[in-house]
Design brief:
The protein is of the alpha/beta class. Helix content is 39%, strand content 13%. The chain contains 13 helices and twelve strands. Strand 6 and strand 7 form a beta hairpin. Helix 1 runs antiparallel to helix 8, helix 3 packs across helix 4 and helix 8 crosses helix 13. It is globular and about 70 Å long.
Length: 412
């Protein structure tokens, strides 16, 4: 793998691409404007007085092929609420992948549960079923599987683990709106599925979240957790449980209803361009893109992820990301630091387990350690351009990776 380093923009060459020509994100049109103005003029701005949130909940449940959807203020607290609705609490262990956003683990800590990390698959970056089963202890109450980048995990394996050990399976779908496993939308394949509508997500209102489930008892528990302990149809001061106040506003739901209508077309564009990018990068020396899985019948395409193992060996992955930025791919990213090495999480887990008198559940995670040195991400906006722009993105990546040995290496 070699190329003339003088052609790199970081060395004074001409940039290959300019990501400013790509469509902006988030996208909106008159539909969002009208929806917001309708809520504004109605005077019913909160979900306790309006019906926009309730309508979106019905529409989103149908979209994700779930029986129930409960909206709330963000995806992080969606995970916490899902765990609590399932009865997870103080001192219970929740197995999570180390290669994910911090919220997957911190949500467990919010309710006094202990996140336990199990390793990931080196090809897909997804939670490994065998590693998960090896991490189960008598204190384990739930597993959070993360459909990272929009690619569904092996739900056959994880639902079997749940049944075998009596564990709740929570699907973290923050990056996987509309994704399918064996022809069914993800979210309610497990016991509960959580979604985020944060600014970068493929369906967004700036912030917001949802939990889907097919279980009516879990749905009612979630409703009460979101609505300060109330029950559907109950009185204003009828609080049958202790709950949070996590309600979504009517303004956010109005935006989300409009966003939901354009999501299918946007996904077609993302999928088409992701296929082109996969083919072009697959032809390049040393670049690894996870191959298609017949069980994954629709990919959420929130991120485009690839590995270049040589960058991990050379220690040049971050230098390559900087060189890609110089080529015009300014939003290329090094991705996650593994959560088992996150100092804030380590402090919280140490303090919690110490107070409870429980062992700190440390595990060896060699695959997560490795992929965190050689993985590069592109955001979903990079999949919304034209075919020619997608080919230019691929050319920039191949150019930089081929010349990576000319880039600075980390100091010893």
């Amino acid at each position: 793998m070699s190329a003339d380093p003088s052609t790199l923009a970081v060395h004074g060459g001409e940039p290959t691409f300019d990501d400013q020509v790509l469509p902006p994100w988030p996208q909106h049109d008159d539909a969002e404007e009208k929806a917001l103005l309708d809520v504004l003029s109605s005077g019913a701005w909160g979900s306790t007085h309006g019906d926009v949130v309730a309508t979106f909940e019905q529409e989103f449940a149908e979209y994700q092929q779930a029986k129930h959807a409960i909206c709330l203020n963000n995806g992080t607290l969606a995970i916490a609420a899902a765990l609590r609705a399932a009865g997870v609490g103080l001192g219970d262990e929740v197995i999570v992948p180390p290669y994910t956003f911090i919220a997957t683990a911190s949500a467990a800590l919010f309710i006094g549960a202990v996140p336990v990390f199990a390793d990931v698959d080196p090809v897909t970056h997804l939670l490994d079923p065998q590693a998960t089963e090896a991490a189960i202890t008598p204190r384990t109450k739930a597993v959070i599987v993360v459909h990272l980048a929009g690619r569904p995990v092996d739900m056959d394996a994880f639902t079997a683990i749940g049944h075998r050990h009596g564990l709740t399976i929570v699907e973290d779908c923050a990056q996987a709106h509309g994704a399918e496993y064996r022809g069914r939308r993800i979210g309610a394949i497990g016991d509960l599925g959580t979604f985020s509508f944060q600014s970068s997500k493929n369906i967004t209102a700036g912030e917001g979240g949802a939990v889907v489930t097919d279980d009516p008892d879990l749905a009612q528990a979630l409703y009460s957790l979101v609505n300060v302990g109330r029950v559907p149809g109950g009185g204003w001061y009828q609080h049958t449980t202790v709950g949070y106040n996590l309600r979504l506003t009517e303004f956010q739901a109005a935006i989300l209803r409009a966003q939901l209508t354009r999501h299918p077309h946007q996904q077609q564009t993302r999928e088409h361009n992701a296929t082109i990018l996969t083919d072009l990068l697959g032809e390049a020396d040393g670049i690894q893109v996870a191959p298609p899985d017949p069980a994954v019948t629709a990919h959420g395409r929130h991120l485009f992820i690839f590995r270049v193992p040589a960058l991990g060996v050379a220690g040049t992955r971050d230098a390559v990301v900087s060189a890609l930025a110089a080529e015009g791919l300014r939003a290329a990213s090094s991705g996650y630091v593994p959560l088992h090495r996150h100092e804030a999480l380590d402090r919280e887990i140490t303090e919690l387990t110490g107070r409870l008198g429980q062992p700190y559940p440390r595990t060896e995670l060699p695959v997560a350690e490795q992929v965190c040195t050689d993985t590069i991400w592109l955001p979903q906006r990079y999949l919304l351009g034209t075919e020619e722009q997608t080919r230019q993105i691929a050319a920039a990546i191949v150019k930089v990776v081929a010349a990576h040995e000319s880039l600075p290496r980390p100091r010893a």
